[in-house]
Amino acid sequence: MNARKIITEAAFSLFKDFPFDTITVQMILNRAEVSRKTFYKYFADKYELMELYYRSFMDDNLHDVYDGHNWEDILKTLYDFIKLDISYFRHVSDVTGHGSFWEFLREYSFQFYRSIKLHNECRDELTEEERLTILMIVEGHMALFKLLVDGKADVNRDGFAALLCSLMPDSYKDLLHDESDYEYSPR
Length: 187
What we know:
Elements: H1 3-17, H2 25-32, H3 36-42, H4 46-66, H5 71-84, H6 86-93, H7 101-120, H8 128-149, H9 157-166, H10 170-173
């Protein structure tokens, strides 16, 4: 196993076990049994690993459901991820300000919708109306996501997907249907 993978797995296990603010790089080093030099060869800080955890799951799983599926399938996959790793989400959701999970999620989600919209319409830029529409979709999705993580939303998998789909204009719901050859990458 390579050092990057060892560090990643060590950090991911800590994220599930401890509040994010209490985790130090030294804790990750101890769990991974690597040097500080090795850590910084691959990662800038623990925040990068926090983002990588979400990004790697979604990137791996979006490719599985994107091909010929619809938004509800993607949103059900997200629901499953939240439920499966609820301790991770509770721990990282307490981080506020610059570098917070919610800041990362807002940007990641915006880029996700943006890339699909622009790809499907063979354009390079969003209109201002499209930018605002995507921002509203993202904020609505994040609000329900946060309520679910905080245990304040009593919604099942199908209800979660249906509710989030209802926040999307129809023109955005149709964006997945003809994209079996499209590979999403928000980076």
